[in-house]
Design a protein that fits this description.
Length: 263
């Protein structure tokens, strides 16, 4: 691994080996998602607590302050929408020249293993790795399941993560599940947990994040469970404590309630 690749990875993964990515890319298939109608207002108070911002080029250009010091992970796959026929029918939407022009520290590409578009999305990933390796840019594979949330089993996620790593991904983002260690153990590159649909309680979020970290994940890529919370700053700070301070879930929940009470 050359200097450029190592340097960019060191920007998104902190010295403790952990990371907290804040995704605001949901609009690429969901449109103006609740609490993300005005992305600039949503992310401004949260940036101090995350390690990198996961975003599309359109929103990055339109609303993110160019003076931002947080590294950017650029979402570069897409195409279908939530009202379309199949969310898995993705293509690469952003050129390598654009990635470099926007000074991205890494890129993210979705793969839909087991879907009708499995081969297409895996080739999207493989070709992206080929291009990005030329410029020392890390690639994060996103093991997406579209609308089929029942696929989030250890066996399926382990399969998806391993294939993504075999295709050359430098980091793999996947969903937490019970027996999450089976997913991480079979993946030879770092694994980051996705949040998925909003959880019922804050404690539930802290519990799955803590469990995943104990079982080998290096961090999270959480969006809706952060910025759709009525107290997103308190949620961000508490998650930061779980990820970077090894705070236990109940302690993190106490911290969340304390910060919430302060307003």
């Amino acid at each position: 691994m050359d200097f450029g690749m190592k340097n960019r990875l060191s920007k998104v993964i902190q010295p403790d080996g952990r990371c907290f990515f804040l995704p605001i890319d949901h609009g690429y298939f969901l449109g103006p998602t609740q609490c993300l109608e005005k992305p600039a207002e949503t992310i401004e108070p949260l940036l101090p607590y995350c390690d990198a911002l996961f975003v599309t080029r359109g929103v990055l250009r339109a609303v993110v302050d160019p003076g931002i010091t947080k590294p950017i992970i650029l979402r570069i796959s897409g195409g279908p929408s939530v009202v379309g026929k199949d969310l898995a029918n993705e293509a690469i939407t952003t050129s390598i020249e654009e990635v470099i022009r926007l000074n991205a520290a890494a890129v993210g590409v979705s793969v839909f293993v087991g879907s009708d578009y499995e081969h297409q999305t895996l080739m999207n990933l493989a070709k992206t790795v080929d291009l990005c390796e030329n410029y020392g840019i890390p690639v994060m594979a996103v093991t997406a399941v579209g609308k089929e949330t029942e696929k989030r089993t250890p066996r399926y996620l382990a399969l998806s993560c391993r294939i993504a790593a075999e295709m050359g991904a430098h980091v793999v983002k996947t969903y937490w599940c019970k027996d999450f260690d089976k997913v991480v153990e079979g993946c030879p590159v770092p694994v980051v947990m996705a949040g998925g649909p909003k959880c019922e309680t804050e404690l539930e979020v802290f519990e799955f994040v803590f469990d995943g970290l104990q079982k080998g994940a290096i961090g999270v890529n959480l969006g809706r469970n952060v910025w759709q919370n009525p107290f997103p700053v308190a949620m961000s700070r508490a998650l930061q404590a779980v990820i970077h301070e090894n705070m236990a879930p109940k302690e993190a929940f106490d911290l969340f309630r304390e910060l919430k009470a302060r307003g």
